[in-house]
Sequence to fold (611 residues):
Amino acid sequence: MKQALSNPLARWGFAIIATVLLLALLAPLIAPYDPDAIDVKAILLAPSSSHWMGTDGLGRDVFSRMLFGARISLLVGFVAVGIATAIGIVLGALAGFYRGWVDTVIMRLVDVMLTIPTFFLILAVIAFLTPSIWNIMIVIGLTSWMGVTRLVRAEFLSLREREFVMASQILGARDGRLIFRHLLPNSLTPVIVSTVLGVASAVLVESGLSFLGLGVQPPNASWGNILTDGKEYIEFAWWLSLFPGMAILLTVLGYNLLGEGLRDALDPRSNK
Amino acid sequence: MTRYLLRRLFWMVPLLVGISLISFLIMHLAPGDITTTEAGFNPKASQESRQKLRQLYHLDEPLIVQYGLWLKRMATLDFGTSFASHQRPVFLERKDDKGNVSKGMIQEALPITLLINVLSLVLIIAVALPLGVISALNPNKPPDRTITVFVFIGFAVPGFWLALMMMYWLGVAHDWLPISGLHSLGYEHLTWPARWWDTARHLAIPVFISALGGLAGISLFVRNGMLDVLHQDYITTARAKGLPENTVVYRHALRNALLPLITILGLSIPGLIGGSVIAESLFAIPGMGKLFYDAVLMRDFPVIMGILTIGAALTLIGNLLADLAYAWADPRVRRGVGG
Fold:
């Protein structure tokens, strides 16, 4: 981590992420208004000292909604990536450790999942379920584990041939011990990078879904569905579109910068 | 080459089976069965459509029979008729008893999406290639840094948001470009060149939006690929022979750096197809993405399942073409030698 933060890109990324995270955590303390409070006397007000980011079509304070929306967008991102990483580690470890038909089955499954356009898959699943925050998290998680699986499998395949693993195996270590003590801890480095980058893409997918009205449902605020309102009023209320878009851009940029910085720092070949 | 093609085709069989299984699984995702899902946005239609769904997917039969029938549907490319759009056939046109032909929904939408995707790929290659090469030839100097900043922004900017902004600036505020549909009113009365120009103006923003992610990704990819290749021994040899720098860069380095690009472009197809949902629904372009989005909103299950399957099939075809192109470009692959 220390090494990673010596990279200027990663430092910027980290600063952005920390700021957004802090704002999201402290949302109830910072938000000047109740994010869901409708005020018919304050509809579509431009940004001013009393409403920093203006108000929306129902007179709700956009700044407060942005803060609470940050919580939802980040929560969806974290949980979805958590699910994807967990599935990826388990399947990747199984494939890389047992090889043979287990490996074949899991890798064919990865190929199949990569063949179906992900956004179609997500939308199709949502069509059969009710769109809710939990369903969105699960669906994004279930459709984005393939990269992690490949990474963990590749690490396992190469680590299995290493002396320390063979030594431990000859000394009679069981599969479980080999996997959890020797292989897994040594194969997590690339997973960290892909997890950080995964949050970025999960935030993008969630906001896209919410923008289409198939993600986080109103009255819950998410950056994506604030933008949906922005689309309605784009001709006379630019602030409804500008701020959520910038928030998504900055957040995704932050995670991408940190991810790339970590990759550079953790990849021994790039330490020129 | 024929043997390679056959081997490659053979590999598609397990993938097709997998796709059929996953789509079958999705059909059975909803609690109970899909016909009892309460997610329907259209409660009035739900009772009737439940009955239709039961018939269409034979939900009263045992699971194994249902799967067999689904496989048959996939194999014969018959995805039934739409629930929402007057019983139109989902994929291919069909004649009814009176000899009236009704056009298939995917059949009409597919060429539009393919056109947008092909144009996006052309745009990606035309812009990302030079950017990547410029970056690689000036590593960590101002041109490279500027391009890298654009790459990171390109990765991070939400496409639908940029689309919205461009729609506003170019369409609403300045009226430079049309922002809805594929053609203007009175398109039928235009001359051929005017028609082309009209369609091109309608497609300009959507094509740019769907190319955006690829632009960033491919420039980065070309840059890193070129940097790798430029450090190879044969490049040093080429320089040592006294070849002009341009020959070294373009004939020796770029050609080899481009090889993996073929695969990457093939892999980017599902993303392009999936990404069409947002651009097409925002700009009201009647392609696969908009068709799919409308079907999801109306819970038009035959259309959803049809597009899901056709989308996967398109990816398979795209990957196949990419592999064949790779084999054509790299003799080591088609002869099955290591390397």
Observations:
- Chain A has a mean pLDDT of 87.
- Residues 96 and 158 of chain A are 9 Å apart (CA to CA).
- Chain A touches chain B through 46 residues (CB under 8 Å).
- The radius of gyration of chain A is 22 Å.
